[in-house]
Automatic annotation (TrEMBL):
CDD domains noted in UniProt: PBP2_NrtA_SsuA_CpmA_like (cd01008)
SUPFAM superfamilies: Periplasmic binding protein-like II
Homology family: Belongs to the bacterial solute-binding protein SsuA/TauA family.
The organism's taxonomic lineage, starting at the top: Bacteria, Pseudomonadati, Pseudomonadota, Alphaproteobacteria, Hyphomicrobiales
Pfam families in UniProt: NMT1
Domain Solute-binding protein family 3/N-terminal: 46-269
Full protein name: NrtA/SsuA/CpmA family ABC transporter substrate-binding protein
Signal sequence annotation: none
Length: 334
């Protein structure tokens, strides 16, 4: 059997021949044409979630699925995942369609490593509470005290870049601090048991650890970082975005609607998150007091993409990312 494009046309080549008339359609699957014409080839989207953040609230609240159901799109939730990197692996491996709205730094690292991923949209939430913490009584009260100490971070992620930025700002030679690469589920007990001296982590893990382990901030992103280097992002494979632009747009819209609801209903959102995260009322009340707001940016927002490129270049220069990456080459065409 021939493997030529004539014998087995792709959707793209099929659409290209459609203008030549009905005769050109002979032997082709008409249902495939209908699906491609509507901008999607599936009615189900597989989304990842973790034990915090917007995706968790979207999953628990249920309105997100109702929004997509209006477009006859069914949602399947996969998780929980501990952080962004495993969701990127799930998307690349074909078991999920979207990463769960996590750090741009591991996303860029995955892209550099060869994963066929593209960004579908970006989120900035404020205030930013990612921090480097150390236990009370440890003798670590400022960044300079990390010399000769070990700090748990997630590789090529939010934790690692924050530590790099903190050391640079306080003129501490990076080689004088031990980076211990651990994912959050392993880093928390490592800090509690004293196997590491400090931990660079995001919410809610850092907030829970601060209370449960009697720890304190030595570097707080929103207070001490001079500019934002890492953003929240959603990614899918390039093929999925190419085959399903209408579905990707619908998912983006549903996430934006969820972010708007959370921004306007922070107290209710934090109660939902606490139920799944199983943390104390004290932590929950801290989050309510933050009154966190979500702002979304499309992949065609040139000003935002310029800022992300500057962040990527900063990370490359400091070897958090292994080589340069051009962000505009990895944006979904929607």
């Amino acid at each position: 059997m021939s493997d030529s494009p004539i014998a087995k046309p792709s959707r793209r080549s099929f659409l290209g021949t459609a203008a030549f008339g009905v005769g050109a359609l002979a032997g082709l699957n008409i249902s495939d044409f209908a699906e491609a014409a509507t901008g999607r080839t599936t009615d189900t989207v597989r989304l990842t979630w973790g034990l915090s953040g917007l995706n968790l609230i979207a999953k628990e609240r249920g309105e997100f699925e109702k929004v997509l159901a209006k477009d006859s799109i069914k949602v399947e939730w996969l998780g929980p995942f501990p952080n962004h990197a495993p969701t990127l692996q799930a998307v690349t491996g074909g078991s999920a369609d979207f990463s769960f709205g996590g750090s741009t730094t591991p996303a860029l690292a995955a892209i550099i490593a060869g994963s066929p991923l593209v960004f579908t949209q970006f989120v900035v939430y404020e205030p930013r509470t990612t921090a480097i913490i150390a236990k009370d009584g440890s003798g670590i009260d400022k960044v300079e005290d990390l010399v000769g100490k070990s700090v748990a971070v997630n590789r090529s992620g939010l934790g690692e870049f924050l530590l790099v930025a903190a050391l640079e700002k306080h003129k501490v030679d990076r080689s004088k601090v031990k980076f211990v690469y651990l994912n959050p589920p392993d880093a928390a007990p490592a800090l509690a048991s004293g196997k590491v001296d400090a931990w660079s982590m995001w919410s809610p893990g850092v907030d829970i650890a601060r209370l449960e382990y009697k720890a304190h901030d030595i570097f707080l992103e929103g207070r001490d970082l001079d500019f934002q280097i890492d953003y929240t992002s959603y990614l899918t494979t390039r093929k999925f975005a190419t085959d399903n632009p209408a579905l990707v747009r619908a998912v983006d819209d549903a996430f934006r609607a969820e972010g708007k609801w959370i921004s306007e209903n922070g107290k209710e959102a934090e109660y939902i998150a606490q139920k799944a995260g199983k943390y104390s009322d004290e932590v929950r009340d801290q989050f309510i007091a933050l009154k966190r707001q979500y702002r979304y940016f499309a992949v065609n927002d040139e000003r935002f993409i310029s800022e992300l490129q500057k962040a990527a270049d900063w990370l490359v220069a400091r070897k958090v990312l292994p080589e340069p990456v051009k962000v505009t080459d990895h944006l979904a065409q929607l």
